[in-house]
Amino acid sequence: MAAARQLRQNLTPAEKTLWQALKDRQLNGFKFRCQHPVGLFIVDFYCPQSRLVIELDGEIHDRQAGYDAARTEQLDRFGYRVIRFRNQEVMTNLDSVLQQILEASCKGS
Fold first, then answer.
1. Strand boundaries in 48-89, DSSP class E
2. Taking a C-beta distance cutoff of 8 angstroms, is the pair 91, 14 a contact?
3. How are beta strands 81-86 and 33-38 bridged, if at all?
4. The pLDDT of residue 4 is above 60
5. Kind of pairing, strands 52-57 and 33-38?
6. Is 41 exposed, middle or buried (0-12, 13-18, 19+ CB in 10 A)?
7. d(CA 108, CA 46)
8. Superfamily of domain covering 2-108
9. Domain limits of the chain?
10. Which of 7, 64, 87, 92 could pair with 58 as two cysteines, CB 3.0-4.6 Å apart?
């Protein structure tokens, strides 16, 4: 999908930071995909093994909370689990973010 490819080429600093920690099965052997199409959406990160979607929220998400909630609800209905982190959290507390992702991944596998 061209849109996903375009997004992968233009990651935010927080997305780049998290992707460096998730790619190549670095997190307990779980495979993650970056800017991956899931249904009608392109999600920031996706772990197919645990059907886990990870979304990073920057300032724009403060203005689109309703859209984000509806999107999360729709993904939930289709059997995906969604966890969200603020960009700032990724940049300042990556270890905690990775621990939370690992715990969520293990619950779904």
1. 52-57, 81-86
2. yes
3. unpaired
4. no
5. unpaired
6. middle
7. 12
8. VSR Endonuclease (3.40.960.10)
9. 2-108
10. 87
Q: How far apart are CA 46 and CA 35, in angstroms?
A: 8
Residue 34 has a pLDDT of: 95
Q: Is the pLDDT of residue 109 over 70?
A: no
Lowest mean pLDDT among 21-25, 42-46, 58-62: 58-62
Q: Within 13 Å and on the Cβ side, how many CA atoms surround 87?
A: 13
Query: For residue range 45-96, what is the model confidence (pLDDT) as tens digits?
Result: 999 999 999 999 887 656 677 888 888 999 999 999 999 999 999 999 999 9
Q: Bridge partners of 46?
A: 33, 53
Q: Which residues contact 25 (CB under 8 A, 6 or more apart)?
A: 31
Give the residue from 104, 106, 17 showing the smallest Cα distance to 53: 104
Position 46, amino acid: Y
